[in-house]
Write a structure and sequence with these properties.
alpha/beta; globular; 5-stranded mixed beta sheet; Nucleotidyltransferase, domain 5; 6-stranded mixed beta sheet; 7 helices; 38% helix
């Protein structure tokens, strides 16, 4: 079994793969509490056991993290509770991508993992991957497996929080698909603004990226992340892959098996 962990600013997203690449389990845990190594280790073993997986069957662990202050405790938990030194996704690992950004070391590990999975699952295509997490990120990859660059902007939840924290009277709201564009209450005003501004962003980014990177040739657009399903019926994505980052980590494990022994 291969345990994959994506450590984001809001959540730890985990998955367990069999050696043939089948995703057997996925789980989430808040990453905001900055747990100790013992808390992480006990949680990981318990969540595996409660889902019918023997923790002792885990042979490898692969991690992508955009929260540096958590890396030491997670690494220590893997060593103490699984007797495994995890493979951390960082510059220098084999990914199958040609990173064309100015400073590859600055790239978020989650962006790399998403792109790796997208290229592996949809080969020989120009790709745009839009990930709706704490931040909304856009990755542009051409059919030659070249990661050309991307965009980072506030995520949907951060947009709501910025309105709440930066104003005197605006309330926090549930993020959903509004029934109409023109709201009739303050809550509806905010919900429509959050949803339709994101929808407009998707369309504009895809159009401009296709012009800049692909000579206006239509790319395949992949949605992923917690809020991607909000746009499932908006006809902006060719496919939604909620577990893209976990599959990317599994592919990276395969590409680097020698160092995982």
């Amino acid at each position: 079994m291969i345990l994959t962990l994506d450590i984001g600013n809001t959540q730890l997203f985990g998955g367990v793969f069999s050696t043939d690449g089948k995703l057997k389990l996925k789980f989430r845990k808040t990453s905001k509490d900055r747990s100790s190594s013992d808390e992480h280790g006990l949680f990981l073993r318990q969540v595996l056991r409660e889902n019918g997986i023997d923790p002792n069957d885990v042979a490898h662990i692969v991690i992508a993290s955009v929260v540096p202050e958590m890396n030491h405790s997670i690494n220590s938990a893997c060593i103490k509770y699984f007797d495994i030194r995890p493979l951390m996704l960082q510059a220098g690992l084999k990914t199958g991508l040609k990173i064309k950004v100015q400073n590859p070391k600055e790239m978020g590990a989650d962006l790399v993992a998403n792109a790796v999975a997208a290229v592996a699952q949809y080969p020989d295509q120009n790709l745009i991957v839009i990930d709706f997490g704490t931040a909304t990120t856009v990755s542009v990859v051409n059919k030659n497996k070249e990661y050309l660059g991307g965009i980072i902007m506030p995520g949907l939840r951060l947009s709501v929080l910025s309105l709440v924290s930066g104003t005197a009277q605006l309330p926090s709201v549930e993020i959903l698909v509004p029934d109409r564009v023109i709201g009739r209450t303050t809550v509806e005003h905010i919900q429509a603004g959050i949803y339709y501004s994101a929808l407009g962003m998707i369309r504009e980014v895809c159009e401009r990226s296709a012009q800049e990177a692909f000579n206006s040739e239509k790319p395949m657009v992949i949605g992923t992340g917690g809020f991607a399903n909000l746009f499932a019926n908006a006809q902006v994505f060719d496919v939604i892959e909620q577990d893209l980052v976990l599959h990317g980590l599994f592919y990276i494990f395969q590409y680097n098996q020698t160092s995982c022994q």
